[in-house]
Amino acid sequence: MSVMMGILEEERKRLEELLDFYRKKIEEAPRGSISAKERGGRRYLYLARREGEKVIFDYVGRDVPEVRDALDNRIHQRREYQAKLRQVRENLKEVKRALRGKRT
Amino acid sequence: MGREHDLFFAVLTRLDEEEVLQDIILIGGWCPLVYREYFGNPAEISMQRTTDLDFMVPNPPHIQKDVDVSRILERLGFDRNISMLDGYVKYVHPDLEVEFLTPERGKGRDKPYAIEKLHVDAQGLRYLDLLQGHVMRASYNGISINVPEPAAYVLHKFIISGRRTKSFKREKDIETARQVGEYLLGHESQRRMLRDIYAGMPGRWRKELLRIIRNASDKMYEFMSSIEAFKI
Question: What pTM, to 2 d.p., does this model score?
Answer without folding.
Answer: 0.90
